[in-house]
Structures are given as structure tokens and as C-alpha cells.
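Query structure, 133 C-alpha cells:
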């Protein structure tokens, strides 16, 4: 995982509550999913400005996740995640252009299992990643 993207996000993050990179990525997933869900609400309320803002934030968070992939050590997993993140970015773009909540729901359904898997990484494995705070 690229420390540059995560550290840049940490510096620009409003929350600052994450203590280590694993927690920071978990926070990114929470914020990302929250933005997508809120964008669905904005579509239901026909609030175009809010929808646009939330989808743009979600797209930026996906870019942080994608930029943080370690292709050298992550191999096929990193490539697969990159493809999923790229697809989610396309769905977000289309959802924004088409005002389509179904595309946002698809993004949520793609990201939830990834977040769940991330949250289930055992503590000892998290520590092997070689991150420093």
C-alpha cells in the first residue's frame, strides 16, 4: 500500500481519528459508503447540488484507495481491487450524470464486502504490513 496516498489523506482528513493505516483505510471506507448513501438520499430529494458534492467526494475517496494499492506486493489482489475501484468510479460518474440511485446502490454492494473483508483482517496481520505512524 502506498504510504503517500494514505499520508496525504491523513493530512487532509477532517476526522484525524485513525491511529494507523489500517484504521485510516477503514475510516475511508466508512466515509465513502456514507457519502454514497447520502447521495442516494439527495437523489430521492432531487437535491442536485448535494448529490454532485457527495458523489465527487466519494470519487475522491475511491481514488485514494486506488492510489494506495501496492501492485508490487499485492499482485492479483491489487489488480482486482483496482478494477473494482475503477468500475465504481465509472458507476459514480454515470449515477451523477443520470441522477441514478440504482448505480449508487451497485457501488455500495461492491464496496461493502471489500470493507467487511478489510475489517476482518486479524490484528497480527495488520502489524505485518510494515507501516509506521
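Result returned for the query:
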Amino acid at each position: 500500500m502506498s504510504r503517500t496516498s494514505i499520508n496525504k489523506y491523513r493530512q487532509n482528513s477532517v476526522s484525524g481519528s485513525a491511529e494507523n493505516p489500517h484504521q485510516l483505510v477503514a475510516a475511508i471506507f466508512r466515509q465513502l459508503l456514507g457519502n454514497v448513501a447520502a447521495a442516494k438520499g439527495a437523489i430521492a430529494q432531487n437535491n442536485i447540488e448535494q448529490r454532485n458534492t457527495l458523489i465527487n467526494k466519494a470519487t475522491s475517496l475511491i481514488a485514494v484507495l486506488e492510489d494506495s494499492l501496492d501492485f508490487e506486493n499485492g499482485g492479483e489482489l491489487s489488480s482486482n481491487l483496482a478494477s473494482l475501484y475503477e468500475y465504481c468510479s465509472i458507476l459514480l460518474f454515470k449515477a451523477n450524470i443520470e441522477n441514478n440511485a440504482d448505480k449508487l446502490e451497485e457501488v455500495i454492494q461492491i464496496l461493502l464486502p471489500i470493507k467487511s473483508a478489510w475489517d476482518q483482517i486479524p490484528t497480527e496481520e495488520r502489524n505485518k504490513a510494515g507501516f509506521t505512524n
